[in-house]
Amino acid sequence: MMSKITPQNDNVMMGLFALAILTMPIWLMPIGASYPDLMQKFAIFGIFAIGFNILFGLTGYLSFGHAAFLGVGSYTAVWSFKLLSMNVVPAVIFAVLVAGAFSFLIGFISLRRSGIYFSILTLAFAQMSYNLAYSVLTPITNGETGLQLAKSDPRIVDAMFVEVGAGIPSTNFFGIAMSGYSGFYFCAVLLIIGFYLSLRITRSPFGMMLKAIKSNQNRMSYTGLNTRPYALTAFVISGMYAGLAGSLLAVTDPLAGAERMQWTASGEVVLMTILGGVGTLLGPMLGAVIIKYFENIFSAFNESTLNNIFAFLPDGLQDVVVSVVGLFVGEGWHLTLGLLFMVIVIYLPGGLVEGAQRIRAYVLKKREKKSATSHQPQIAE
Amino acid sequence: MDTLALQLLNGLDKGGAYALIALGLTLIFGTLGVVNFAHGALFMLGAFCAVTVQKLLTISVKVKDESITFFEAYKEVPYLETWFGETGTIIIDYSVPISILLAIPIMLIIGLVMERGLIQRFYKRTHAEQILVTFGLAIVIQELVKANFGANPIPTPAPDVVAGSANIGAWLGLGNTVVYPWWRLIYLAFAAVVIAGVFSFLQFTTFGMVVRAGMQDRETVGLLGIDIQRRFSIVFGLAAVVAGLAGVMYTPILPPDYHMGMDFLVLSFVVVVVGGMGSLGGAVAAGFLLGILQSFASMNEVKSILPGIDQIIIYLVAVVILLVRPRGLLGRKGVMEN
After folding, report:
1. Is the pTM higher than 0.80?
2. Do residues A47 and A41 make contact, with C-beta atoms less than 8 angstroms apart?
3. Interface test with A, best of B132, B137, B145, B309 (most A CBs within 10 A)
4. Cβ separation of B311 and A109 shorter than 8 Å?
5. CB contact at 8 A, A127 and B277
6. For A170, which DSSP code?
7. How far apart are the first and last CA of chain A?
8. Which of A125, A63, A119 minimizes the C-alpha distance to A269?
9. What is the SS3 assignment for A20?
10. Domain ranges of chain A
11. Chain B residues contacting A, CB < 8 Å?
């Protein structure tokens, strides 16, 4: 494992990460997760969580409003499809820029406070955007129906170059349709770039500054340093990641709804980050994959599949087991999620990465002890 | 004028609910220093106490319907009616007030179990972790309720006597245009009584005095040989009861569903922040203030000038307050001012 932080080790990690992401369709096959729709979700929410971690993991500012940036990204991307072109490149670029501007605005105000006040401010802004998206901004967001593509959309750029087809055109990357595996690889490449950037940020002097803000902001201020621009930069960067993730959601499925901006959605990305490991590089990605995977698996269960699984039990027992397990799967998947959340925060606040490190440390210690005891007599003599 | 009066009542009503939840949140924060994101879930559990009582009271038996003679017909009649006749019907009618009696011990137990079982592990942890674990707990409670009662709102009507509306305008000589539902008036009075009860409990009893002393300086109170921890745990139970009662009484106004807690929680937090973290008076004042502001903002005259203002007014006020006066309206100096 990565025992020391050196540029070589970082490069190795980067290479392994890229390899793991690009070969996902192969090694996810045995667990039945290798179809593009799900892997797109892995990549998209991986980006979201990695970006969130730049704020929460490095600076310690817990934002409860990041779903708003995701939503803004989605809306921007869909508008770009409607007005300009079905090409995904301008959509992604615009989404990132707009989400960045939006997060600058919110971050500028929210970051004047820290701790729980910051969390509540971001929550307030996110709820505000959510409520507005449902009510006054309906001309832009199309309210409850969600923003959709229509055949009558202008698509100015496309109209100049491409012949108008019969149905609603699909999103494409210079002619390559963004559905199925090509959609996944598009997301995957952006994920790898996003991961690389987050790695560079973490290792940079700027990243050190963010960690210093987390460990003791007062002391930083006493040394005469204004920490706010640094925190704001981190906030905007993570907002842009969220915008990117939002635009990719629109790329793979050109539809944007306000429910993406609800604060429970913000809670989900917090959970992903915590589950994997706050402040670690690989943790958020890991958390995103695990949660999306289990969401997919668990919510697919229903009573009849459960009855099939537990058919080997005696009848009375089978009913009991099915009804108990049924609480946690299918519709009740959120219950499992909530329990997981609590267990992780209570017992493993550092997430799975910390858990792995603890096990590793334990094993190493045991090995050391063993070798120490075997050497003991010789030393005694 | 009439619409203004009505909106004022609406606002006071909503404000009553906000104030009751925010009061509990502030009590918990002021005593234990814990940020409880599961408080909305307690409110919702209170509402579902009323639902449970209603369900229990109306457990029915199938009896033959004598009024239909053409064929064998059966109808469902609650056991209570078959046993007690008219009295039974009245008891069922009064299910919401009756559930208050049940909700008090239940919410107290839930609160104490929650504090001893979970919250006490989090005194020393960061606020972020407290938020996260109680957020998880809120999801769990919510999903359990959903699994038991379904996702649809369950109507729990108020007793027939107070089902109609009161003609307030006639009392005050304003004409017959100010008409307001009885139950909402009762809710307002109830909120006032509970708030007054909590305040006098803290102000005029020895227990309350110790708790207030503990909020000021926990260590010194501990040095005086008082087990302040035990008292704070009871305060948590008390806060749960207040939230639960607010929920029980709110059921005739809004048929409870499993996510009503979350909806109220976000607003109540904003209320606490506006009032001042750890200030009980501030929480109550801000609760009513924001309730009234919200209902005024939802008037058509206001909305035609500033469209959408009713959706965001509370958040907007919170943002302004936090930036201008971070300790809140009535917050003490130095409490969470950073």
Report:
1. yes
2. no
3. B132
4. no
5. no
6. P
7. 37
8. A63
9. helix
10. 33-263
11. 35, 118, 121, 125, 127-129, 131-133, 135-140, 142-144, 146-147, 262, 266, 269-270, 273, 277, 307-308, 311-312, 315-316, 318-319, 322-323, 326, 336, 338
Burial B253-275 (b: 16+ CB within 10 A, else e): bebbbbbbbbebbbbbbbbbbbb
pLDDT tens-digit map of B212-227: 888 888 888 889 988 8
Q: A118-133, pLDDT tens digit by residue?
A: 888 898 888 888 888 8
Confirm if B13 and B192 have CB atoms less than 8 A apart: no
Where b means 16+ CB within 10 Å and e means fewer, A268-282 reads bbbbbbbbbbbbbbb
Residues of chain B with pLDDT under 70: 1, 173-176, 333-338
Asked if B322 lies within 8 A of A113 by C-beta distance, the reply is: yes
The C-alpha of B120 sits at a distance from chain A's nearest C-alpha, in angstroms, of 11
3-state SS record for chain B: CHHHHHHHHHHHHHHHHHHHHHHHHHHHHHHHCCCCCCHHHHHHHHHHHHHHHHHHHCCEEEEECCCCCCCCCEEEEEHHHHHHCHHHHHHHHCHHHHHHHHHHHHHHHHHHHHHHHCHHHHCCCCHHHHHHHHHHHHHHHHHHHHHHHCCCCCCCCCCHHHCCEEEHHHHHCCCCCCEEEHHHHHHHHHHHHHHHHHHHHHHHCHHHHHHHHHHHCHHHHHHCCCCHHHHHHHHHHHHHHHHHHHHHHHCCCCCCCCCHHHHHHHHHHHHHHHHCCCCHHHHHHHHHHHHHHHHHHCCHHHHHHCCCHHHHHHHHHHHHHHHHCCCCCCCCCCCCCC
Residues A316-364 have pLDDT tens digits of 787 788 777 777 777 778 888 888 888 888 888 888 888 888 888 889 8
ipTM: 0.80
CA atoms within 13 A on the CB side of A137: 17
Which amino acid appears at position B68 of this protein? I
Tokens 């959709």 belong to residue: A148
**Token duo for residue A289:** 């994959």
Every domain of chain B and the residues it spans: 2-324
Average pLDDT along chain A: 86
Q: What are phi and psi of B298, to 5 degrees?
A: -90, 5
pLDDT digits (tens, 9 = 90+) for A7-58: 888 889 899 999 998 888 888 888 877 788 889 999 999 999 999 999 999 9
**B295 vs B313: CA distance, rounded Å:** 10
CA-based nearest residue in chain B for residue A326? B147
**C-alpha pair distances (Å), A69 with each of A235, A358, B205, B263:** 11, 35, 50, 21
The rounded distance, in Å, linking the Cα atoms of B221 and A48 is 47
Percent of residues, chain A, with pLDDT higher than 90: 33
A182 φ, ψ (degrees, to nearest 5): -65, -35
Burial of B150 (0-12, 13-18, 19+ CB in 10 A): exposed
